[in-house]
Amino acid sequence: MKKLYINLLSAVMLVLLAGCDKFLDIQPTGSVIPTTLSEYRALWLNACTTVPANRGLASLGADELFVSNSRDKDRYSAIEKWEGSTTSTTTVSFDWANYYEVLFFSNFIIEHSGDIVEGRRDEIEQLTGEAYLMRAYMHFVLVNLFGQPYTKEGAAESKAVPLRLDTDLEKVLTRNTVGEIYSSVLEDMNRAEELLKVEKWNDATLSYRFTKGCVPALRSRVYLYMGDWRNARIEAEKALAMKSTLEDFKVAGFKLPNHYQSVEALNPLEYTINNDYQNAVSVLPAFLKLYPKGDLRVDAYFAPADEAGNRKSQKGGSSEFRCTVRTGELYLTSAEAAAHQDNLSEARKRLLELMEKRFTPAAYALQKAAVEKMDKAALLAEILNERARELAFEGHRWFDLRRTTRPRIEKVLEGKTYILEQDDARYTLQLPREAIAANPGLNN
Question: What pTM did the predictor assign?
Answer without folding.
Answer: 0.93
